[in-house]
Amino acid sequence: MESQAEKKCIVCNASHNEVPVTRFEYKESVFYICPQHIPVLIHDPQKLVGLIPDAQNLNAG
């Protein structure tokens, strides 16, 4: 079970106690991202290199 402390945006580290975060799964792992950074995930995933595995292989939508 996930601890509450792990629910932080992968980009800005804002916790779910500060902002809403959305859970997503990729490569058998669970990540969270805040609404401000969802566009990064969709349109500029190269900015996630080093934050999620194989981000360099993601294509912008």
Question: Would you summarize the structure shown here?
Answer:
The protein is mainly β and 61 residues long. The chain has one domain.
Span between termini:
32 Å
Work out the helix count. 1
Question: Using DSSP, what is the number of strands?
Answer: 2
Largest sheet: 2 strands, antiparallel
Low-confidence stretches: none
* Class by SSE composition: mainly beta
Question: Helix coverage percent of residues?
Answer: under 10%
> From the alpha-carbon coordinates, what is the Rg to the nearest angstrom?
11 Å
Query: In what order do the strands lie side by side in the largest sheet?
Result: 1-2
Count of domain modules: 1
Q: Which geometry do the CA atoms define?
A: globular
Instruction: Determine the strand fraction and express it as a percent band.
Output: 15-25%
Written as H for each helix and E for each strand, in order along the chain, the element string is: EEH
What is the average per-residue confidence, as pLDDT, rounded to a whole number? Answer: 90
Word description of this protein:
The protein has 61 residues and is mainly beta. It has one domain (4-57). Helices cover 10% and strands 16% of the residues. The chain is built from one helix and two strands. The chain has one helix at 38-43, and strands at 22-26, 29-33. A two-stranded antiparallel ribbon has the order 1-2. The termini are far apart. The mean pLDDT is 90.
